[in-house]
What does this fold into?
Amino acid sequence: MKPFPALLFVLASLTAVHADSSLTIYNQNFAVVRDTVPLDLKAGENDVSFADTTAHLEPDSVILRDPAGKVDLHILEQNYRNDPITQDLLLSLNEGKTIDFLIRQQDKPDQTVQGRIVRSGYVPPTLVTDDNGNIIQQTPASSQPIIDIDGKMQFGLPGTPLFPSLGDDTVLKPTLSWKLQASAAAKLSAELAYLTEGLSWHADYNIVAAEDSDVLDIVGWITMSNLSGKDFHQATIRLMAGDVNKIQPRQAMFRMADAVSAMAAPAASAVTEKAFEDFHLYSLPRPTDLKDQETKQVEFIHASGVQSQRIYVYDGAEINLDQWRGNPEGLRGNSEFGTESSTKVAIMREFKNSQANQLGLPLPKGRLRFYKRDGTALEFTGENTIDHTPQDETVKVYTGNAFDLVGQRTRVNFNVDSDNHWADESFAIKVTNHKKTPVEIRVVEHLYRWTNWEITAKSDPFLKTNAQEIEFRIPLKPDETHTVTYQVHYSW
It folds into this structure.
């Protein structure tokens, strides 16, 4: 495997090592942000504010300390404000009040009218999680404002609102304010760390198969999204892969303007791969910008010559086990159980994540998209997702159903003797290859009726793949049909 030169998987310290921001984004849609706060402290109590946090900071996760350990800092009080001023927010704060509106006119002098804000129409945006687990920002449709001008109601603003001057308790950006107790007077660069929502990342893999073989080229991408309400300039960015336990907020949605209420997020580092605790860290090699509302992509895997297999599987039984749970007698003796079947033959793609196979690094969970070369063109041939896959494990995913391969599953016989606690069942499974090339179809059968079973007759050899599953591997020539038969004896 050839790692992209801009990305290496490396372990990074949780301590900020330069004056710019650093953050670790987790693939569970939260992050740890680390910033440097310049402090000029006197001995005793100090009032300090920091107005460069995210809009989804988790206030009780805040850590403020002297990384050099020379000054003993204690946070006596902490306040978090997240109501930055916008026109829509100011309209909502002035509902019921009368303000001036400036009306600009091309052929006449500008004029000012007074109107009472009956309804602002403001609805704060929310963050929600989509079907793929990614955080997205939703801006609900706001209603039109209603303004009372001289006793007449008007939908929409009559002009540009002119608000009274801001009070001392308003903020332009999300702000942390502290009352700090310092052991001595000192100037220092304190380290600030906190958890936040609104930052997410995921992996995607584009996989191209050669025109006449199943040798693969694999390109992996990291996609980072920032909906945190804060721009990160020249930040050291790390990505954490793994299932870190994080208590989620009680509500699936939360207001972007909510202050010290329920918000959530965890911790630390990202892309040159190295194990960290029971997870993996991936660290970008150089500081980069990640602006609010921005999505950034970086290539992190570029591998060629990856050997793979295309596997065809006919798993014809369509069995809904839920209807039989708690009813083993019905499961064993019902003559209709297991008779529903499908004709589809599944296509499975399989390759080993090993150094010998040009890969061999932990693969973060994500989407695999498969393409096949057709001359100079690339055609899309299916996609699926994988979970976190360690080194030397095998990736095996379903990518679709084969057009020219057909299966047919028929139950031939069923006898049950409930008094003597046994049942016999037999099947005929026909598979046909309409392709112009030879294939092997793996015929999978599930022995669901009971845990004690024995194959008493068979047309072909089989593998026992688990306690209640067997597999026949049937080679088929072009335009060949083969029928697999077997009989199973259950006892209880």
